[in-house]
Specification:
Layout: E1 2-17, E2 24-45, E3 48-49, H1 60-77, E4 82-89, H2 99-113, H3 121-127, H4 136-143, E5 146-149, E6 152-153, E7 174-178, E8 185-188, H5 198-208, H6 213-233, H7 236-246, H8 250-257, H9 262-272, E9 277-280, E10 287-290, H10 294-305, E11 310-313, E12 321-324
Parallel strand pairs: 3-4
Antiparallel strand pairs: 1-2, 1-12, 2-4, 2-5, 2-6, 5-7, 8-10, 8-11, 9-10
Helix pairs in contact: 6-7
Length: 325
């Protein structure tokens, strides 16, 4: 039997509680999109073999860490079957689509399914090794939709990104999951940009954090009373206003600055041709854009940047799709 997993990408709008002190640590808001998708196929095997990930740019050390995690789960749960990854297609890694979490969850879930076990989302989240900074991808994998997670209890330790965390002792706390309205949207990969390395990301977190309390409060207000409430009330204008304002807040603005003028120039151009909102997902560089006259805006973007740099997408309110053959 072959288990097939098709996972929607996630857009991460912002981390929230990144301050010196407070009630929580991290947390964030974001949502799933139908395209691009991570598609993986697994079959039972005496061992755990994830070497197919090398074709998608996974370094050997990262493959080894994920392999060791699955081997530990096999021993802990006394599973008789390992898992071999036989097919894989992924979006560009480290471009803001949440690929690392999608792959980790798909691997862990498929391991149990191939052993005849269906584990709960809570169990899989707790044992996939992801969610060190944000829980958006952990939740959206199963259900899609718009997610607000409140992170974890405050910890004075240094704040690092999810890719720099191998073990997560306390899973992020999901506070809300809402269906997204089908507001037309597109994705643009700004020309001249490339993915940040893990070392660059770690250095960025170290330099920028923690944030002053006033910055944390501002992010919280626009993320919750802006974006979250706009999705719940189906208010497109408020949603767009909050998305645009989040790009100006301390954390997202600093993330955008990592790419020099490349991302800002593209975002400004999108606004100038009639886009109502533009957001950089996670630490970038992918840009998500919305427009009332979407067909016209999309055509202009495609002419300007080329059809390979831009594509249409839509909200995903389902989460991953499992099938077998």
């Amino acid at each position: 039997m072959i288990i097939r997993v098709s996972v929607p990408s996630r857009v991460h709008l912002t981390l929230i509680d990144l301050g010196f002190a407070g009630y929580r640590r991290n947390g964030g808001v974001g949502f799933s999109i139908t395209e691009p998708r991570s598609t993986l196929a697994f079959k039972a095997d005496p061992v755990v073999d994830l070497h197919a990930l090398t074709s998608c740019g996974y370094p050997s050390a990262e493959i080894m860490r994920l392999t060791q995690r699955l081997v530990r789960l096999m021993k802990q749960r006394q599973l008789t079957q390992g898992v071999r990854l036989v097919e894989v297609q992924l979006p560009k890694r480290h471009f803001g689509f949440g690929t690392g979490t999608a792959v980790a969850l798909a691997c862990v879930e498929s391991l149990f399914l191939l052993n005849g076990l269906s584990e709960s989302p809570e169990y899989l989240r707790a044992h996939c090794g992801r969610g060190g900074a944000s829980g958006i991808g952990l939740s959206s994998y199963f259900s899609g939709g718009f997610i607000f997670d409140a992170g974890r209890q405050f910890n004075p330790a240094s704040i690092v990104g999810s890719d720099a965390t191998d073990e997560v002792d306390e899973p992020p706390l999901e506070m809300a999951r809402l269906n997204m309205m089908d507001w037309p949207m597109g994705v643009l990969i700004p020309p001249g940009t490339s993915a940040l390395s893990l070392e660059q990301e770690q250095g960025f977190f170290s330099r920028q954090l923690p944030l002053p309390a006033a910055d944390v409060y501002e992010i919280t207000y626009h993320a919750l009373f802006g974006a979250l409430v706009a999705v719940r009330s189906r208010n497109y204008d408020t949603f767009c206003a909050s998305i645009n304002t989040l790009q100006l807040c301390a954390w997202k603005s600093a993330e955008i600055d990592l790419y020099g003028q490349a991302v800002r120039t593209c975002a400004s151009h999108l606004a100038s041709i009639g886009c109502d909102a533009v957001a950089m997902s996670s630490i970038g560089p992918a840009l998500i854009f919305w427009a009332r006259d979407f067909d016209s805006a999309f055509a202009t973007v495609a002419r300007h940047y080329g059809p390979s740099a831009v594509f249409r997408t839509s909200p995903d309110n389902m989460g991953r799709i499992l099938s077998h053959d």
